[in-house]
Structure formats: C-alpha cells, structure tokens
C-alpha cells in the first residue's frame, strides 16, 4: 500500500516514527503570416490581454542573467538517432560540436510534423520562420557566437501564445479567423533570443479548458504510447510533438494540470512553475489567478534549461542533490487514494527504487491538501469562476454555438461559482497556500501525477457524463497543486505497463521552483538507473 503512516503522523518507509506531517514538516514588424493548417487566412481580430504592456525587452543575449540548470543525470539522456540527440541539451551539444546542422535538422523536424503519428498535433506550422531561425543559428555557430546551449534546437509552441505573423486560435472555432499577432509573447521572444527554432503552434483542448486533449475543430492528436487512448490536455499537441520527435521540447500552459497530464500520458517530463515565475504577456488567459506556463521535455535537465531560457536567462549547469539529501513526504489521503491498479503498482515500485537509492521517504497527511477537494465540492472551483469571466462575452454572444458543447457547458457552469463563491475561494486559497508553504519548508511532496492511465478516447466521447467524470478524475491531483500554487514537475515513473505511462510528481512550496527542479533531477537519476 502507498499509505504507511495512518492518521497519527508521518512515518518513514520502514515504519519508524518521524515528525508529524499534520503539525510540522520542517525540513515591431509584421512578418509573413503562416496560416492555420487547413484554415483560410483571416481578418477578424481577437481581443484579450492580461493588461501587461506589449513592449518586449530587446536585451542582447550577452547581457542576460545566467541561470543554473541541472546537469544530465546518469541514464537520463534520451536515445540518440540519426540527426542528433532526442533531448534538447544533447541536440544542442551536437549542433555546437558540428555533428548536426541546424538547417538540416529543422527540415527533418518539419517533415516529422507531417508523419501520421503526429497528425493533429499542430494547428499552425511556421516553416518560413523555422528555416530563417535555423539559418541564423547555423551562421552563429559558424562564427563562434552561439546564444547558449539551446541555439538551433527546435521548439513547438502551444496555440495560446502569440507568435508574430500567426493567429492565436486557443483551439477554438470562434478564433479560427483571428488576425495574426504582430509580436511574439514574451517567453516566445525569449526562446527566439536563445536561438531556438519555432516549428509551429500546437493543438489543445478548446480554450485550454479540459484535461483530456480532445478538439472537435482541429482534430485530436493520437496518444503515441497508448493506441486508442487520449493524449491528455489541454497541451495535447505540445506533448505529442515532443513524444513523436518533431521537437525535443515544447511550450504549454497549466491552469489545472494542462502540462502535467499530457506529459504523463505521453511519457514525458512536464513542469508547472509557480504562477508568477514567467511573464505571461501575450498568452491567451483561462483563469489568470491559476494560469501558469511551462515546458514539456524528455528530461528534467531539459526542463530546467528551458525554464531558464523562458525567463530570459542563460542556463548554467547545477548538480542535483544526492538522493540521501532529499526530504520526501508522500502525502496520504486524496493524492494517493483511489488509484488505478497500474498507477499504484508503478508508483510503489518508484518509491522502492528511491529508497534503495538512499532517499528518506516519510508518509503523512497534509491538511492544506486535504482541505481542497471538500472546498471544491461545496463551493465549486476557482478555475470555473475565472474561466466563465474570461469567456463570458463569447458564451453570451452569437459565436456560442461554435464552441464545443462540452466546453460551453463547463463555461456556463462557472457563472454561479463566480457569483456565489468567488471571494470565498480566493480567501481560502490564500489561507491554504500560506499553510502549505509553512508546512513544507524544504520538504518535497512525491505522489502520482494522475490517478489513472490514459483512458480510451471512445470512453470519454461516449456521452457528456462520461466526459465530465473522466475529466474530473484525470485532473484530480493536479488541480490541488495548482490551487495551492505548488511548483510541480512530473516525470515518468519507469517500469513496464503495456505501453501505458505513469507519472510521478515532485512538488514544493510556492517560489521553490529551483529546489523542485533540482529534487526532480535527483529523482530522475534514480528512476532512470
């Protein structure tokens, strides 16, 4: 069993009493437009913003602050193949060493985007931009002026981010004909400043408002690990683009689990930073209080490197702690109860491997975590309230019938939550976040990212009731971390499971993103052995 300590307090894996978790755990130009795939050029604009200035910083790469990143751990690098490594840092090293030409690799990436296994992964391709950026990278490397370890590495971008010259559709038919953006979102501009090559904008659940990854307008990408299974959402296309080798990394957004769920179902690493960590100027909102943006990658070091780049910093290596230095708490209760058998088996096997690797593992209930599901049950969710507010005009307007009925129903449900419970939810969130941060200290939580393996697509499409039930289940654990603003990284649990993948999450207190990345690198180094 996952839970070992009962209600009396945290216990070590061998049953020795430890500190009680319930009490203390201290420890502008207009470039040529690349239209949406299969879509006509558009002239209708979409109006949205967070209220941030659209002005982008144009500091040169040499003036940007250097940021630590994790060194690749033993066994964590992805397999190599013709055309370079499949992990971002490995590919960057191959390019820097002259073994891979960024222009040729870009052409290979664009070709792979047309492969059957990547169908529906992209809404808009950006071949002209990609070729120009790859050619510029080739010149920099030739001249010894590379912009960092990811110069020349392809990246895919979720279609919630402004990319100059392309529309931002948010995966919705209502925005399919949106006018092209005139500037990049800040973090897209930061990736470009690091020399990365944007190959296109990826598919998603409509308005990023589902954890399943279905899209009735642009198609649903296939799950590369589970034939017939859903890819997870909302960042479905980003996950599939990485899992199928179109790009070694991608950008996603995560409001309730939209990076972590598809990363789990597609066998990847996905990082949800603290909400304030990255500049969200030029990102289409869903629920601004909860919205976060983060990378999907093949390895934890790649996630750490991309996290630095997206903040406008140059990644620099930093070693993860030894496993014996980790203070791991497995939260008993909602995050580890009612798991699918395969998830439970693989999670417990991962804990056994961590213990054998030297990690100290304790078990105990975390009151702030346990308080969240009853709050949602009694008052509704914060994401429902803010999603309704974000899309109220569309829901009430002439375009409402162009929205997927399942998404439209969820958006309308949020009206009552916004009216009756919004202030209470904000107040309780602030209280519970303070409580969780004080309790965790230097401890990291380790738990299953999703309590189920990827459900069959036919099941979730059978009827609206099944859709709602499965959506709530796959988002169960990730929604708790989002509500408490816990920076969280999911990585593959390892082991075999007939192609179905299971994720393990590492979470810490708000603002402890660097510690979470380092701890996750240590966990990965053990699980990859």
From TrEMBL:
Pfam families membership: Amidase
Domain Amidase: 109-517
Region span, Disordered: 1-82, 124-151
InterPro entries in the cross-refs: Amidase (IPR000120), Amidase_dom (IPR023631), AS_sf (IPR036928)
Coiled coil: none
Domain of life: Bacteria
GO molecular function: catalytic activity
Protein name as catalogued: Amidase domain-containing protein
Record organism: Halostreptopolyspora alba
Higher taxonomy: Bacteria, Bacillati, Actinomycetota, Actinomycetes, Streptosporangiales
């Amino acid at each position: 069993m996952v839970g070992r300590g009962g209600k009396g307090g945290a216990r070590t894996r061998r049953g020795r009493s430890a500190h009680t978790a319930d009490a203390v755990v201290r420890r502008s130009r207009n470039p040529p437009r690349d239209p949406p795939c299969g879509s006509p050029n558009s002239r209708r604009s979409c109006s949205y913003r967070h209220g941030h200035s659209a002005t982008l910083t144009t500091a040169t790469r040499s003036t940007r602050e250097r940021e630590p990143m994790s060194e690749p751990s033993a066994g964590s690098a992805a397999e190599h193949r013709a055309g370079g490594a499949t992990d971002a840092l490995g590919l960057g090293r191959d390019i820097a060493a002259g073994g891979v030409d960024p222009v040729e690799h870009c052409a290979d990436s664009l070709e792979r985007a047309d492969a059957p296994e990547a169908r529906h992964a992209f809404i808009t391709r950006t071949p002209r931009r990609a070729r120009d950026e790859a050619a510029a990278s080739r010149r920099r490397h030739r001249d010894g002026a590379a912009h960092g370890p990811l110069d020349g590495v392809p990246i895919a971008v979720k279609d919630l981010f402004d990319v100059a010259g392309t529309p931002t559709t948010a995966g919705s038919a209502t925005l399919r004909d949106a006018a092209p953006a005139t500037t990049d979102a800040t973090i897209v501009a930061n990736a470009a400043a690091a020399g990365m090559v944007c190959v296109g904008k990826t598919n998603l659940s409509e308005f990023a408002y589902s954890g399943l990854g279905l899209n009735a307008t642009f198609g649903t990408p296939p799950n590369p690990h589970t034939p017939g299974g859903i890819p997870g959402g909302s960042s479905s296309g980003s996950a599939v683009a990485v899992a199928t080798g179109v790009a070694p990394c991608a950008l996603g957004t995560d409001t309730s689990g939209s990076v972590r769920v598809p990363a789990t179902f597609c066998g990847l690493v996905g990082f949800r930073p603290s909400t304030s960590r990255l500049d969200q100027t030029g990102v289409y909102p869903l629920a601004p209080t909860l919205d976060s943006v983060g990378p999907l990658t093949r390895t934890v070091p790649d996630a750490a490197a991309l996290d630095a780049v997206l903040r406008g910093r140059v990644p620099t290596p930093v070693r993860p702690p030894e496993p014996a230095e980790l203070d791991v708490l497995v939260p008993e209760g909602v995050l580890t109860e009612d798991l699918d058998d395969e998830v439970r088996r693989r999670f417990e096997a991962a804990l056994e491997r961590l213990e054998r690797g030297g990690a100290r593992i304790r078990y105990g209930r975390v009151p702030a975590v346990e308080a969240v599901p009853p709050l949602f049950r009694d008052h509704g969710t914060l994401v429902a309230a803010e999603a309704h507010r974000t899309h109220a005009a569309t829901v009430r307007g002439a375009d409402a019938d162009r929205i997927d009925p399942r998404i439209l129903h969820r958006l309308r449900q949020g009206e009552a939550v916004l009216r009756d419970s919004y202030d209470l939810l904000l107040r309780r969130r602030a209280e519970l976040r303070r409580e969780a941060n004080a309790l965790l200290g230097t401890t990291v939580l380790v738990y299953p990212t999703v309590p189920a393996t990827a459900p069959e697509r036919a099941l979730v499409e059978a009827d609206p009731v099944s859709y709602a039930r499965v959506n709530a289940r796959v988002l169960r654990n990730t929604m708790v971390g989002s509500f408490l603003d816990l920076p969280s990284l999911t990585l593959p649990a390892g082991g075999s499971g007939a192609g179905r993948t299971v994720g393990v999450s590492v979470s810490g207190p708000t603002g402890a993103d660097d510690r979470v990345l380092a701890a996750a690198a240590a966990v990965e180094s053990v699980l990859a052995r």
